[in-house]
Each structure stands twice: as structure tokens, then as C-alpha cells.
Amino acid sequence: MSRKVVRASKFRHVxxxxxxxxxxxxxxxxxxxxxxxxxxxxxxxxxSMIVDASGGGAFMVLxxxxxxxxxxxxxxxxxxxxxxxxxxxxxxxxxxIASGSEDCSVMVGL
Length: 110
Fold this sequence. Notes:
Shape: elongated
Mean pLDDT: 86
Helix content: under 10%
Distance between the termini: 69 Å
Protein name: Coronin-1C-A
InterPro entries: Coronin, DUF1899, WD40/YVTN_repeat-like_dom_sf, WD40_repeat_dom_sf
Strand order of the largest sheet: 2-3-4-6
Largest sheet: 4 strands, antiparallel
Low-confidence stretches: none
Oligomer: single chain
Radius of gyration: 19 Å
Number of domains: 1
Organism: Xenoophorus captivus
Order of helices and strands: EEEEEEEEE
Keywords: Repeat, WD repeat
């Protein structure tokens, strides 16, 4: 006689709920040039995303309380001549961010 075995899972009865549109970010041109890294970085104050930009790499830094549709003219952080490959916030200061690019340069900004 065979017995049916049900695997125990602690996530069996967990259900999620979709976030409302006013709590999401819309109309951001996320870059497709990122290699083996993240497209974004976040800390307790800001979220940063690598975006498509003409003439080199750029990324966008948004305060966490600014959600909804992001205007196409929202300022981006530019300065690299190649695509930005990775961005990361400083673990000790929430206002400092570093970016690394395909042009072999690293930039640190406030």
C-alpha cells in the first residue's frame, strides 16, 4: 500500500497582494547594458536605478517617498562615458553613492 506524501512548506498558506499604482514607479527607462550586477540600489532614504541615456552612462536617484509616474525630464546623474555597470550606496552615509562604469572609472557623489 502506497501512501501519498505531502511536503511540509511554511509558505503553503501565504498569499500576497499587489501594490497599488500610486506606490509604484512608472515610466523609468531601465538600462539593458548592465552585466552581472543589479539594476538598482536602495537605502533608507533613496532608490537608485541605472537608466538608458545617450552619450554615456547615467543613473537616477529618487527619494523613497516620490512614487508614481516619473517625468521623462527628471534629472539623472551623468558623468561616465560608458554604460554604468553598478551603483551602490555608502553603508555609513545615506547621502553618498558610488557608480562604476564600463569606461573603467568609479565616481563617488553626494
